[in-house]
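Tokens as discussed.
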């Protein structure tokens, strides 16, 4: 009995101890509150305390924002800045567009070594306010945006690493001799909406740019075709100039051209085989003074000749012979605002069996009185087999775009969208 009494007492003491432990235990210590040894984390770009470890320093100018998810980018855009803040050495993408910046001094770039992209568009920068060589020392710079500024001259020197240079919407009227030399990696060059005239071509500034793929010269003061362009060129934009003539055999040195835009010029006659190019996909000659059509290459898919003075579309000129083994790829023609009185001959559908749309719109047959043809828009409906093939091609295109969108961004500029 004594032994049982002792066991009972021990059991009661153990039960009381367990109860007291649960009574004193605060469940919020584990589930509801912050542990004493760990403070809540808030990102502060001005301090290194409590910053998680990265293989590169997390640093940001106080005027800007450096997202933790993109620590190599510094966003200083749309902040009414008048000066460029100091740039941390690890930054690779710098966004300073839409500010009131007037100068580009060397000071803020003193420690910069890895920067690949700078966007200084939509500011008030002038050429003489750019420190000489400030860009040239950035040996990893690939893309430079300077469009929509007040530049009167080309901002040279530039680093040999540069691939894309956007200078549209400035006041550039000349290209200094050798300004574009030493840029072997340049693939896209945008000069649209400047004050360039034919005198800039005397030194043949583009001839040695062996990798140039896109050249935008739209909205300038050109009267002749730019000479000695590199054979690597694929996209050429010359719209809104005063060009009146394309020299015969001009494009023989440009076999890679896939898109040519020359709308809003003064073209009157096109030599017959001018556009006999194996890779041409898009041709825009709208709003010129053309009276006749011309030869259409097999590869061409989209043709824009609206806003001209064409009275009759001679399909035989566009397609002199039929080759069932090498059918022409044309699918879309825009011919509105011409002087047509009748639709295109049905012979066109033998020459261009893939054609789906012909946009006639309104025609300027009589002065100040636009008229419409009986069929303002011709649309060819696809057979079920053609529709399925088109859907398959569309899906393939979308898939390629998903995979290659970064590469496309490297070469396509909004002027070409």
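Sequence:
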């Amino acid at each position: 009995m004594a032994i049982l009494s002792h066991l009972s007492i021990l059991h009661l003491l153990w039960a009381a101890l367990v109860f007291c432990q649960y009574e004193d235990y605060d469940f919020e210590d584990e589930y509801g509150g912050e542990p004493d040894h760990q403070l809540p984390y808030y990102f502060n770009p001005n301090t290194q305390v409590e910053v998680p470890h990265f293989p590169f320093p997390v640093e940001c100018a106080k005027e800007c924002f450096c997202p933790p998810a993109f620590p190599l980018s510094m966003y200083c855009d749309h902040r009414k800045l008048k000066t460029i803040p100091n740039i941390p050495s690890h930054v690779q993408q710098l966004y300073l567009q839409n500010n009131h910046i007037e100068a580009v001094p060397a000071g803020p770039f003193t420690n910069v070594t890895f920067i690949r992209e700078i966007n200084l568009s939509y500011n008030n920068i002038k050429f003489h306010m750019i420190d000489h060589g400030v860009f040239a020392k950035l040996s990893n710079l690939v893309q430079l945006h300077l469009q929509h500024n007040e530049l009167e001259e080309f901002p040279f020197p530039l680093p040999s690493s540069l691939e894309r240079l956007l200078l549209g919407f400035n006041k550039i009227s000349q290209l200094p001799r050798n300004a574009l030399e030493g840029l072997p990696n340049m693939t896209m060059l945008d000069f649209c909406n400047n004050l360039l005239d034919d005198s800039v071509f005397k030194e043949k500034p583009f001839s040695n740019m062996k990798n140039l793929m896109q050249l935008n010269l739209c909205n300038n003061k050109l009267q002749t075709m730019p000479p000695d362009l590199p054979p690597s060129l694929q996209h050429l934009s010359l719209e809104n100039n005063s060009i009146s003539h394309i020299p015969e055999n001009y494009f023989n040195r440009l076999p890679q051209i896939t898109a040519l835009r020359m709308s809003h010029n003064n073209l009157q006659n096109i030599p017959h085989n001018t556009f006999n190019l194996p890779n041409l996909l898009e041709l825009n000659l709208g709003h010129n003074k053309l009276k006749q059509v011309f030869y259409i290459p097999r590869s061409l898919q989209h043709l824009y000749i609206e806003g001209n003075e064409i009275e009759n579309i001679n399909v035989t000129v566009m397609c002199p012979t039929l080759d069932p083994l090498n059918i022409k790829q044309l699918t879309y023609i825009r011919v509105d605002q011409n002087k047509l009185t009748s639709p295109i001959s049905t012979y066109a559908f033998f020459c261009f069996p893939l054609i789906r749309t012909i946009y006639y719109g309104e025609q300027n047959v009589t002065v100040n009185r636009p008229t419409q043809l009986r069929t303002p828009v011709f649309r060819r409906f696809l057979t079920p087999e053609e529709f399925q093939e088109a859907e398959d091609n569309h899906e393939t295109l979308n898939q390629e775009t998903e995979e290659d969108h970064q590469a496309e961004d490297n070469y396509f500029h909004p002027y070409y969208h």
